[in-house]
Amino acid sequence: MRKIWLIFKREYITRVRTKAFILGTLALPVLSMTILVVSIFLSGGRYASTVKIAILDQTGELGGAVETSLVKNREKSQPDVEIVQIVERPTASVEAYFKSQVAGGEIDGVLVLPVGLIEGTADAKFNAKKLSAMALLGPIERAVSNAVISRRLSAEGRRSGTMKDVFRLAQVQLVNPTSQNSDDSDENNFAIAIIAGMVLYMTLIVYGMSTMRSVMEEKSTRMIEILVSSIRPFDLLTGKILSVGAVALTQYLVWAVTIGVLFASAAGLADVLRPGAPTPNISISPTLLIYLVVFFLAGYFLYAALYAAAGAIVSTDEEAHQVQMPLTLLIVCSFLLFNVILNNPNSTLSVVLSITPFLSPILMTLRLAMQTPPAWQIVLALALSIVTTIYVIRLSAKIYRVGILMYGKRPSIKELRRWLRYS
Amino acid sequence: MDAVTLEQVTKRYDSFDAVSSLSFGIKEGSVFGLLGPNGAGKTTTLRMIVHILLPDEGSVRVFGQPLSERAQDLIGYLPEERGLYRRMRVLEVLRFLGALKGLPEAEAERRAIEWLERLGLANRMNDEVNDLSRGMQQKIQFIAAIIHKPPLVILDEPFTGLDPVNAQVVKDVMLELRKDGATIILSTHRMDQVEQMCDSICLMNKGHKILDGDLKAIKKSYGTNTVRVEFVGNPAFIQLPDVVERVNSFGEMVELRLRPGADAQQILRSAVDHRVEIRRFELIEPPLNDIFIEKVSGRDA
Description:
- The structure holds two protein chains of two kinds.
- In chain A, 67% of the residues lie in helices and 7% in strands.
- By secondary structure, chain A is an alpha/beta fold.
- Chain A has a five-stranded mixed beta sheet with strand order 2-1-3-4-5, sandwiched between helices.
- In chain A, helix 2 packs parallel to helix 10 (233-264) and helix 12 packs parallel to helix 17 (375-403).
- The longest helix of chain A is centred in the middle third of the chain and has 34 residues, at 187-220.
- The radius of gyration of chain A is 29 Å and the shape is elongated.
- The relative contact order of chain A is 0.11.
- Chain B has two domains: 2-219, P-loop containing nucleotide triphosphate hydrolases (Rossmann fold); 224-284, Alpha-Beta Plaits.
- Chain B has a six-stranded mixed beta sheet with strand order 6-7-8-3-9-10, sandwiched between helices.
- Chain B is globular and about 70 Å long.
- Helices cover 33% and strands 30% of the residues of chain B.
- In chain B, strand 7, helix 6 and strand 8 form a beta-alpha-beta unit.
- Chain A binds chain B through residues 3, 6-7, 10, 14, 217-218, 220-223, 225-232, 405, 415, 418, 423, and chain B through 14, 47, 50-54, 69, 72-73, 75, 77, 79, 81-88, 96-97, 99-101, 141, 144.
């Protein structure tokens, strides 16, 4: 154990000190920062145009008050609103007409104030397609609540009810006319799924290759012979893989913290950079972060063991290039299957792929980012991945043991099979 | 007790046996020379003693114990293939390797500094290994092999790449280690070093042992059948096919192997006849070099 720790420590310190690590670790926060700043300006640009909405007031009592709140008493950070029309007690065909106008893009949104809104038995609905109009949801909710509450107060004599009933806020549901099921494909989740998938994809390749290069370095500098005269090859391999994994986790941690701080301060930043701009709404759930780390580790150990074996059987960079190709392709495969998952995370194909070993680390994370798959699927994916990893590590360790002392020609598959039989 | 015992050790590779049925013992506190031409199986044998390779058959014991991870800490090993982490600082490398052999890190560092001072590298201890010359790197590796004061030191070609001054420094350290009771296994092609340092040897060829035992005894068994002559003049006087079996010529010094039963005085007479001035005339045991060449090339086992 002590020797594994020594290997771990040396590799970790050497690696964390490299320029590549420092630059790589800083790259993502800097990139996110850039995206954030750009999005503040871009979204600001979009919001600069007035959002046109129609109000369909089935109660016949609220429309004017809502308009006043949104237009005259507008909130500071809210986009400008133009109320194109207020229709009291509209017919169904009028409602359909305005909704088609939203779908067609002639107006940006339709706010429906249903009968029962004042009594608190129905929710308002806001039909909107564009992001800019969606950002209006908060102000609209507050405007509607204000209107409803003042209405209740003025009618207090007529109605019975507690203070709580009087001041209950109105709810506004966002309805997107273009998407069939608005629950599953939230745009936020979609973006985060892609980011999570890409982060996994890139870190698996980068740290897999890093493990391979570390094995190759010891081999090519002939350091390996001194090392294995002091430590079992299996322990050396263990220390090395754990250490590269720890470096990766360190990087993740830095990313999580910096980006977390960045997002948390996004509102303040937006205010400073462009007063009045809306707050970019990005959020990553902590559960997703935990899954990301768990599946990164599952994938990392699997691939690192393979990359280490690959590093052990080659002597030159050229050979390394050939040998790592199939491994990298395996990871790229997951990347190419992104679309299957993103299109429909619940299709049979998506479920099967996200449970398949070698693919599961990335693809299951993708599904996790978009929705919550059934627990048995998550557990099965992890279990299969762990079992596969144990087998792969055993095989890799055997190849590693023999390979690290072999120089010269790269072994053929037949020779490799013989290596596996050496005990 | 023997420091190292090999019994019927065989190591097979795909197409050939690198070592076959090799047995020998090394006395504790002695310097043992493992000799043989290139590809004889020396490095494979050493690797099996260090527990890097496992024999396919037979057993290797170090200080009476079967090989294990623990036994590895009793061994210091300088491999023939040399290298260190290029981007690490000298002191860090030594501390790391010393700790890997079981020393506490502080102790490893203390000893590393001591040795670096002794081998004249103290001013380089914070440099990257990369910036050192090959000879310096080799000395660092030598330190790494002995930093934990192992009772068994295995040195594969320790002198190649060292200038005479540094070779002498390393040799002095080796003799000192031996005086302190360490057992040393030396693998080399340089027969003169073997003759100077080794108590016993094992000569290998093509994976087989072809000769082993006490060095003096081996040489004695060949008898004093060699004449070393230093002279000034024409070397034609040594052309005596009836008397001389083989000639090793070093210019004005020759080593002549006599035919069995031949009389060495005939050479002296021939020299006088050829008006050659004799500076030295000496009957000696055959040099190890000759034994080596004869054993390896002459009668193929």
